[in-house]
Amino acid sequence: MKSKIDIKNELDNLVIDSKFQPIVSVVRKSVVGLDGISMGADLNGKFIPLNKLFYYAERSNCEIDLDRSIREKIVKEFNKICINDDKLLFITINMAVISKFVGSGIILDLVNKFNINPQNVVLEIYENNIENVEVLQQFINSYRSKGFLVSVTIGSGSANLDKISNVEPDIIKISESITKDIEMDFYKQEIFKSLVNLSKKISALIVADGITLEGQAIASMELGADMLQGNYFGQYEDINSDLLSSVEEKVHYIASQYKKYKTEQIEFEKSNHKKYEELLNNIIDQLSTIKESEFTTKLNDVIARYDVFECVYVLDESGMQVSDTITRFRNMLSQKSLIFKPAKKGTDHSLKKYYYFLENMGLNKYVTDPYISLASGNLCITISEKFKGINNKNYILCIDFNPNYINL
């Protein structure tokens, strides 16, 4: 059946289906771009999915002709609505096809045909296993020199980090494999933040893709996304002015919800800060009136009363631990306990951030970024605060918290 369709002779009869999904900026409260794709084409009343179209095209040796026809339909439809507009058009570039025709200038000719500024076109490089990196870079350098922007997607498939170094993208899309459940998954949040930090260093913008829920949208913005994309704002569909208007209503709603979230977050953090400040002061008051030899006994009482603490211990002014590490984790898995063990009395902490930043920066209190605790194997935040003992000796109280329980 497949061999009976000669796409080369049927190209002019194909009715190519093009769909668009909005890409939005909540900060600008607007649709800033459209991601154009094709689902396939209709041929004599029968719909042929895109993968089958390229199967037939490959057999007829006309992949580039089909690729060009699809891209022209996308650009043509985009231009009907976004003429003389500043919106970005995202076009998927399949390097498996394009690499055979590098230097032909077909994409530049196409945007010139429809009077679209190349600076408004984002070429999304699609190919996880690029065999000829030199051809890829030649293609990118050629089109970037004409003003085109280049994008890669991170989070699905293989060789993702290689793609960043090979492509040197202007835009990084973070895929649904990372943004799914990001509003509740701490590890995905940290991966997202790492990509945001990387993007800043290489002067790239971040698009959070796969957004289907309000919570995902707000979390992605909070983590540093510049733009959002996903079914929450609109599925891939035919482009029209009504589509853009309905999307902008959702963008304005998310903007108002994000503003509300930030207001509530500030109030929550103020309340939390006061709560933990009082808690630390209470513990220090108790420690400052007893002998150093009694610290461990007192800390056992403390850990029993406050279940938000993971570990508590005291250092002297040189960074040496003068109490036991008191922890709630009594029955750690044997295989885990070989790696993660609470520090013992006499351990030197002078190279730990919660000590040397406190000392070298002249601070009275220091709060670390989240890190893996060597005491428990869990993610934690350490708060260290100086205090004086009954003999006027300087000490440092260190408390490890689960980062989900505290915002300071």
TrEMBL record:
Entries under SMART domains matching the protein: EAL (SM00052)
Instruction: Specify the domain of life of the species encoding this protein.
Output: Bacteria
List, alphabetically, the InterPro entries matched.
Cyclic-di-GMP_PDE-like, EAL_dom, EAL_sf, Sensor-like_sf
Q: SUPFAM superfamilies in the record, alphabetically?
A: EAL domain-like (SSF141868), Sensory domain-like (SSF103190)
Q: Which ranges carry the EAL domain?
A: 1-250
Single GO MF annotation: cyclic-guanylate-specific phosphodiesterase activity
Q: Which CDD domains match?
A: EAL (cd01948), PDC1_HK_sensor (cd18773)
Q: What is this protein called?
A: Putative EAL-domain containing protein YkuI
Q: What organism, scientifically named, is this protein from?
A: Clostridium magnum DSM 2767
